[in-house]
Design goal:
Layout (H helix, E strand, L loop, with lengths): L6 H16 L14 E2 L2 E8 L10 E5 L5 E6 L5 E7 L5 E7 L9 E8 L9 E6 L7 E12 L5 E12 L6 E8 L9 E5 L2 E5 L5 E9 L3 E13 L2 E13 L5 E9 L8 E12 L6 E15 L2
Parallel strand pairs: 7-8, 13-19
Antiparallel strand pairs: 1-4, 2-3, 2-11, 4-5, 5-6, 6-8, 7-9, 9-10, 10-11, 12-14, 13-14, 14-17, 15-16, 15-18, 16-17, 18-19
Amino acid sequence: MKFTLPARSLGRAAAGVATALAVAGTTVLTGGAAHAQAVTSGSLSFSGDQGDWITGGQSYSYATDAQDKFDVYASTDHRVISLSLNGAHGGWWSLDLKAPEGKQLAVGEYTGATRAPFSGPAEPGLDLSGDGRGCNTLTGSFTISNVAFGPNGYVQTLDATFEQHCEGWTAAARGEVHIHNPAPPAELDLGLGVAVDGTASTLNGKATVHGTVTCNKPAAVTVSGQVSQVSHRVLIRGSYTTTVPCVPGAPVAWQAKAEPTGTTPFQKGDAEVAAQASAVDSDYGTTATAGQTTAVRLTKTAG
Protein backbone atom coordinates (compact mmCIF):
# COMPACT_ATOMS: atom_id res chain seq x y z
CA MET A 1 0.00 0.00 0.00
CA LYS A 2 1.38 3.41 -0.94
CA PHE A 3 0.89 6.42 1.33
CA THR A 4 1.28 10.06 0.39
CA LEU A 5 1.62 13.17 2.53
CA PRO A 6 0.88 16.80 1.77
CA ALA A 7 3.79 18.43 -0.03
CA ARG A 8 4.53 20.75 2.90
CA SER A 9 5.09 17.72 5.11
CA LEU A 10 7.33 15.60 2.89
CA GLY A 11 10.63 17.10 4.02
CA ARG A 12 9.83 16.76 7.68
CA ALA A 13 8.50 13.25 7.17
CA ALA A 14 11.63 12.13 5.36
CA ALA A 15 13.80 13.35 8.22
CA GLY A 16 11.53 11.69 10.73
CA VAL A 17 11.60 8.38 8.87
CA ALA A 18 15.39 8.41 8.61
CA THR A 19 15.69 8.93 12.34
CA ALA A 20 13.03 6.35 13.13
CA LEU A 21 14.70 3.72 10.98
CA ALA A 22 18.04 4.46 12.59
CA VAL A 23 16.64 3.56 15.98
CA ALA A 24 14.40 0.71 14.85
CA GLY A 25 14.55 -2.15 17.28
CA THR A 26 15.58 0.00 20.25
CA THR A 27 14.45 -1.62 23.49
CA VAL A 28 12.64 0.75 25.82
CA LEU A 29 12.73 -1.45 28.89
CA THR A 30 14.05 0.09 32.07
CA GLY A 31 14.26 -1.27 35.59
CA GLY A 32 15.62 -4.68 34.69
CA ALA A 33 15.48 -7.12 31.84
CA ALA A 34 12.39 -9.11 31.02
CA HIS A 35 11.45 -12.25 29.13
CA ALA A 36 9.19 -11.88 26.07
CA GLN A 37 6.02 -13.95 26.22
CA ALA A 38 3.55 -14.97 23.56
CA VAL A 39 0.12 -13.40 23.96
CA THR A 40 -2.63 -15.98 24.39
CA SER A 41 -5.52 -13.66 23.60
CA GLY A 42 -5.03 -10.12 22.33
CA SER A 43 -5.75 -7.48 19.74
CA LEU A 44 -4.37 -4.20 18.42
CA SER A 45 -6.39 -1.88 16.24
CA PHE A 46 -5.68 1.68 15.13
CA SER A 47 -6.52 4.22 12.45
CA GLY A 48 -5.36 7.69 11.53
CA ASP A 49 -6.39 11.04 10.12
CA GLN A 50 -5.44 11.97 6.59
CA GLY A 51 -1.87 13.25 6.81
CA ASP A 52 -0.86 11.01 9.70
CA TRP A 53 2.50 9.50 8.78
CA ILE A 54 2.15 6.23 10.70
CA THR A 55 -1.21 5.11 9.36
CA GLY A 56 -1.45 7.08 6.10
CA GLY A 57 -5.08 7.70 6.98
CA GLN A 58 -5.81 3.96 6.91
CA SER A 59 -7.25 1.56 9.50
CA TYR A 60 -5.55 -1.57 10.81
CA SER A 61 -6.79 -4.42 12.97
CA TYR A 62 -4.91 -7.44 14.31
CA ALA A 63 -5.96 -10.20 16.69
CA THR A 64 -4.79 -13.56 17.94
CA ASP A 65 -8.13 -14.95 16.74
CA ALA A 66 -7.00 -14.05 13.21
CA GLN A 67 -3.70 -15.95 13.74
CA ASP A 68 -1.70 -12.73 14.15
CA LYS A 69 1.23 -13.32 16.50
CA PHE A 70 1.80 -11.03 19.49
CA ASP A 71 4.69 -10.91 21.95
CA VAL A 72 4.69 -8.74 25.05
CA TYR A 73 7.13 -7.96 27.82
CA ALA A 74 7.36 -5.48 30.65
CA SER A 75 10.20 -4.06 32.68
CA THR A 76 10.56 -5.77 36.02
CA ASP A 77 9.63 -2.51 37.77
CA HIS A 78 6.36 -2.45 35.74
CA ARG A 79 7.18 0.99 34.31
CA VAL A 80 7.19 -0.10 30.64
CA ILE A 81 5.13 -2.45 28.49
CA SER A 82 6.29 -3.28 24.96
CA LEU A 83 4.10 -5.12 22.47
CA SER A 84 5.20 -6.43 19.08
CA LEU A 85 3.19 -8.24 16.44
CA ASN A 86 3.63 -9.99 13.13
CA GLY A 87 0.50 -10.10 11.03
CA ALA A 88 -0.58 -13.42 9.56
CA HIS A 89 -1.00 -11.69 6.19
CA GLY A 90 1.85 -9.22 6.50
CA GLY A 91 2.55 -6.18 8.59
CA TRP A 92 4.71 -5.76 11.68
CA TRP A 93 4.06 -3.22 14.40
CA SER A 94 5.18 -2.31 17.89
CA LEU A 95 3.58 -0.33 20.69
CA ASP A 96 5.39 0.97 23.76
CA LEU A 97 3.76 2.48 26.84
CA LYS A 98 5.89 4.00 29.58
CA ALA A 99 5.10 5.57 32.96
CA PRO A 100 7.06 8.54 34.34
CA GLU A 101 10.20 7.76 36.30
CA GLY A 102 9.56 6.13 39.66
CA LYS A 103 6.00 5.12 38.69
CA GLN A 104 4.38 1.87 37.64
CA LEU A 105 1.90 1.62 34.80
CA ALA A 106 -1.52 1.59 36.44
CA VAL A 107 -5.14 2.37 35.68
CA GLY A 108 -5.43 6.03 34.72
CA GLU A 109 -4.85 8.65 32.04
CA TYR A 110 -1.34 9.57 30.90
CA THR A 111 -1.21 12.94 29.16
CA GLY A 112 1.73 14.87 27.76
CA ALA A 113 3.42 11.74 26.47
CA THR A 114 6.50 12.02 24.27
CA ARG A 115 8.37 9.40 22.32
CA ALA A 116 9.49 6.36 24.29
CA PRO A 117 12.23 5.62 25.21
CA PHE A 118 13.41 9.23 24.97
CA SER A 119 10.71 10.81 27.15
CA GLY A 120 11.89 12.91 30.07
CA PRO A 121 11.86 11.63 33.65
CA ALA A 122 8.56 13.32 34.50
CA GLU A 123 6.86 12.46 31.18
CA PRO A 124 5.00 9.32 30.14
CA GLY A 125 6.24 7.64 26.97
CA LEU A 126 4.38 6.36 23.91
CA ASP A 127 5.44 4.95 20.55
CA LEU A 128 3.39 3.29 17.82
CA SER A 129 5.55 2.36 14.85
CA GLY A 130 5.87 -0.32 12.22
CA ASP A 131 6.03 -1.31 8.57
CA GLY A 132 9.12 0.89 8.26
CA ARG A 133 7.46 4.03 9.60
CA GLY A 134 8.11 5.78 12.88
CA CYS A 135 7.98 9.24 14.41
CA ASN A 136 11.13 11.28 14.99
CA THR A 137 9.35 13.18 17.75
CA LEU A 138 5.79 12.79 18.94
CA THR A 139 3.21 13.99 21.42
CA GLY A 140 0.23 12.06 22.65
CA SER A 141 -1.61 10.40 25.47
CA PHE A 142 -2.87 7.02 26.55
CA THR A 143 -5.42 5.72 29.02
CA ILE A 144 -5.17 2.39 30.82
CA SER A 145 -8.47 0.91 31.98
CA ASN A 146 -7.06 -2.41 33.19
CA VAL A 147 -3.56 -3.77 33.81
CA ALA A 148 -2.17 -6.70 35.80
CA PHE A 149 1.39 -8.01 36.09
CA GLY A 150 3.00 -11.20 37.28
CA PRO A 151 6.60 -11.73 38.39
CA ASN A 152 9.61 -10.86 36.24
CA GLY A 153 7.73 -8.55 33.87
CA TYR A 154 4.94 -11.01 33.04
CA VAL A 155 1.95 -9.16 31.55
CA GLN A 156 -1.34 -10.82 32.40
CA THR A 157 -3.81 -8.09 31.39
CA LEU A 158 -3.70 -4.79 29.51
CA ASP A 159 -6.60 -2.75 28.19
CA ALA A 160 -5.63 0.68 26.91
CA THR A 161 -6.38 3.35 24.32
CA PHE A 162 -3.90 5.83 22.83
CA GLU A 163 -3.55 8.89 20.59
CA GLN A 164 -0.29 9.85 18.88
CA HIS A 165 0.79 12.91 16.84
CA CYS A 166 4.03 12.74 14.83
CA GLU A 167 6.31 15.79 14.58
CA GLY A 168 3.76 18.06 16.24
CA TRP A 169 1.24 17.64 13.43
CA THR A 170 -2.50 17.97 14.02
CA ALA A 171 -3.18 14.65 12.29
CA ALA A 172 -3.21 11.75 14.73
CA ALA A 173 -3.18 7.99 14.98
CA ARG A 174 -5.65 6.55 17.48
CA GLY A 175 -6.09 3.00 18.65
CA GLU A 176 -6.60 0.45 21.39
CA VAL A 177 -4.81 -2.61 22.68
CA HIS A 178 -6.11 -5.58 24.64
CA ILE A 179 -4.03 -8.39 26.17
CA HIS A 180 -5.45 -11.24 28.23
CA ASN A 181 -3.05 -13.99 29.32
CA PRO A 182 -3.43 -16.81 31.83
CA ALA A 183 -2.43 -16.33 35.44
CA PRO A 184 1.38 -16.17 35.66
CA PRO A 185 3.23 -19.46 36.14
CA ALA A 186 4.97 -20.05 39.42
CA GLU A 187 8.61 -19.01 39.58
CA LEU A 188 11.15 -21.81 39.58
CA ASP A 189 12.09 -22.88 43.12
CA LEU A 190 15.05 -25.17 43.75
CA GLY A 191 16.05 -27.26 46.75
CA LEU A 192 19.52 -28.67 47.29
CA GLY A 193 20.81 -31.39 49.57
CA VAL A 194 24.39 -32.60 50.12
CA ALA A 195 24.92 -36.06 51.58
CA VAL A 196 27.22 -36.33 54.61
CA ASP A 197 29.16 -39.26 53.13
CA GLY A 198 31.54 -39.35 50.18
CA THR A 199 34.59 -41.22 48.91
CA ALA A 200 38.26 -40.51 48.23
CA SER A 201 39.72 -42.62 45.45
CA THR A 202 43.08 -44.32 46.05
CA LEU A 203 43.36 -44.75 42.26
CA ASN A 204 43.15 -41.14 41.04
CA GLY A 205 42.86 -39.06 44.22
CA LYS A 206 39.45 -37.66 43.32
CA ALA A 207 36.65 -37.06 45.85
CA THR A 208 33.17 -38.21 44.96
CA VAL A 209 30.27 -36.33 46.56
CA HIS A 210 26.54 -36.63 46.06
CA GLY A 211 23.14 -35.36 47.13
CA THR A 212 19.71 -34.46 45.79
CA VAL A 213 17.90 -31.55 44.13
CA THR A 214 14.21 -30.71 44.10
CA CYS A 215 12.17 -28.39 41.88
CA ASN A 216 8.58 -27.24 41.50
CA LYS A 217 8.65 -27.52 37.68
CA PRO A 218 10.90 -29.29 35.16
CA ALA A 219 14.40 -27.85 34.80
CA ALA A 220 17.96 -28.83 33.92
CA VAL A 221 19.76 -28.22 37.21
CA THR A 222 23.51 -27.68 37.37
CA VAL A 223 25.17 -28.52 40.68
CA SER A 224 28.68 -27.17 41.14
CA GLY A 225 31.00 -26.34 43.98
CA GLN A 226 34.22 -27.15 45.79
CA VAL A 227 35.50 -29.87 48.10
CA SER A 228 38.03 -28.71 50.71
CA GLN A 229 40.04 -30.84 53.10
CA VAL A 230 43.02 -30.38 55.44
CA SER A 231 45.22 -33.42 55.91
CA HIS A 232 48.59 -33.34 57.70
CA ARG A 233 48.50 -29.53 57.51
CA VAL A 234 48.06 -29.61 53.72
CA LEU A 235 45.03 -27.89 52.18
CA ILE A 236 43.46 -30.03 49.45
CA ARG A 237 40.87 -28.47 47.17
CA GLY A 238 39.00 -29.47 44.04
CA SER A 239 36.02 -28.23 42.03
CA TYR A 240 33.17 -30.24 40.57
CA THR A 241 30.12 -29.76 38.37
CA THR A 242 27.30 -31.91 37.02
CA THR A 243 23.87 -31.38 35.46
CA VAL A 244 20.76 -33.46 36.12
CA PRO A 245 17.19 -33.28 34.76
CA CYS A 246 14.88 -32.35 37.61
CA VAL A 247 11.15 -33.02 37.66
CA PRO A 248 8.68 -32.21 40.44
CA GLY A 249 7.44 -34.87 42.81
CA ALA A 250 10.53 -36.44 44.34
CA PRO A 251 14.18 -35.58 45.03
CA VAL A 252 16.53 -36.23 42.10
CA ALA A 253 19.97 -37.65 42.86
CA TRP A 254 23.18 -36.00 41.71
CA GLN A 255 26.80 -37.15 41.96
CA ALA A 256 30.06 -35.47 40.98
CA LYS A 257 33.82 -35.95 41.22
CA ALA A 258 36.24 -33.26 42.39
CA GLU A 259 39.83 -33.50 41.16
CA PRO A 260 42.45 -32.06 43.53
CA THR A 261 44.18 -28.98 42.13
CA GLY A 262 47.58 -29.86 43.63
CA THR A 263 49.64 -33.01 43.85
CA THR A 264 48.09 -34.22 47.12
CA PRO A 265 45.09 -36.52 46.62
CA PHE A 266 41.95 -36.37 48.71
CA GLN A 267 42.25 -38.45 51.86
CA LYS A 268 40.05 -40.49 54.14
CA GLY A 269 38.54 -38.15 56.74
CA ASP A 270 36.51 -34.99 57.18
CA ALA A 271 35.99 -32.52 54.32
CA GLU A 272 33.84 -29.49 53.60
CA VAL A 273 31.60 -29.50 50.53
CA ALA A 274 30.25 -26.20 49.23
CA ALA A 275 27.48 -26.70 46.66
CA GLN A 276 25.27 -24.48 44.54
CA ALA A 277 22.37 -25.52 42.32
CA SER A 278 21.25 -23.31 39.44
CA ALA A 279 18.72 -23.59 36.61
CA VAL A 280 17.04 -21.32 34.08
CA ASP A 281 13.32 -20.71 34.58
CA SER A 282 11.89 -21.45 31.14
CA ASP A 283 8.84 -19.28 31.74
CA TYR A 284 10.69 -16.12 32.73
CA GLY A 285 14.26 -16.53 31.49
CA THR A 286 15.61 -15.94 35.00
CA THR A 287 18.04 -18.14 36.94
CA ALA A 288 17.02 -19.80 40.19
CA THR A 289 19.69 -20.84 42.69
CA ALA A 290 20.08 -22.72 45.97
CA GLY A 291 23.22 -23.24 48.05
CA GLN A 292 24.48 -25.36 50.91
CA THR A 293 27.77 -26.04 52.70
CA THR A 294 28.06 -29.39 54.47
CA ALA A 295 30.63 -31.31 56.52
CA VAL A 296 31.25 -34.61 54.74
CA ARG A 297 33.10 -37.75 55.84
CA LEU A 298 35.20 -39.26 53.03
CA THR A 299 35.98 -42.99 53.03
CA LYS A 300 38.61 -44.68 50.89
CA THR A 301 37.63 -46.44 47.69
CA ALA A 302 39.65 -48.14 44.99
CA GLY A 303 37.42 -46.78 42.21
